[in-house]
Amino acid sequence: MIVFYKAINILFDIIEVFIFIRIFLSFLPIDYRSGFSRFIYDVTEPILRPCSMILERLGIDTGFLDFSPLLALLFMNLIIYILKIIIF
Fold this sequence. Notes:
Radius of gyration: 15 Å
Helix content: over 70%
Largest sheet: none
Structural class: mainly alpha
Shape: flat
Oligomer: single chain
Number of helices: 3
Strand content: under 5%
């Protein structure tokens, strides 16, 4: 079980880095069809889209800023915390 926890933790760390890269890229005037940008978008979209839909269903209008990355990071940290409690 410890190996499973470590693997999930490493995977979530990588995804967190990709989410931060996507946040950074969102402030730059770049073409999202380029290779690197498209890769980051494709990897993070399955995680961020459900969080965005949750915010929409709750009626939270964030205006200019997108809070779905923050919500995704919170959910991922919550999952890691729960796994840590279960395993250890």
